[in-house]
Structure to design on (149 residues):
């Protein structure tokens, strides 16, 4: 699994001109599911996102996690994180999981992040979305579960 995690003041997803979800202070997670990803990858990613210390403490140091600050998460499925651009000019997405498998692991990630105490909002799987992100900092972190194993 791959994720781009952005600390935000607010975030929202629109589909066909209507807001389908929104959050206040927290993170927007652009989540890509790879072909070989498993429940183990979900466990790793949920722990990282929920407990990543990217929020400021009273002294302004990044010492607090999403759980610590009671933040929210807007999780958006993003298969394009598996775009391979090493050859040619058109990305290849052969490393991305098939849609049914990706949907299952995406939903599992969202459920488990909620179980960790985070209010979770989602995009609309396989829809063309307009994602609005008010990046705070800016703070943007890349997480790849494959690099963990």
């Amino acid at each position: 699994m791959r994720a781009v995690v952005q600390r935000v003041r607010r975030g929202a997803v629109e589909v066909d001109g209507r807001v389908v979800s929104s959050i206040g202070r927290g993170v927007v997670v652009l989540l890509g599911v790879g072909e070989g990803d498993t429940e183990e990858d979900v466990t790793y990613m949920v722990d990282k996102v929920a407990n990543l210390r990217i929020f400021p403490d009273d002294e302004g140091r990044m010492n607090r996690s999403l759980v610590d600050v009671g933040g929210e998460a807007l999780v958006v499925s993003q298969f394009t994180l598996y775009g391979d651009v090493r050859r040619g000019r058109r990305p290849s997405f052969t490393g991305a999981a098939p849609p049914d498998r990706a949907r299952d692991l995406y939903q599992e990630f969202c459920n488990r992040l909620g179980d960790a105490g985070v209010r979770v909002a989602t995009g609309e799987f396989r829809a063309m979305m307009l994602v609005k992100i008010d990046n705070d900092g800016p703070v943007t972190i890349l997480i790849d579960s494959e690099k963990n194993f």
Remarks:
- The chain is about 25% helix and 40% strand.
- The longest strand covers residues 130-144.
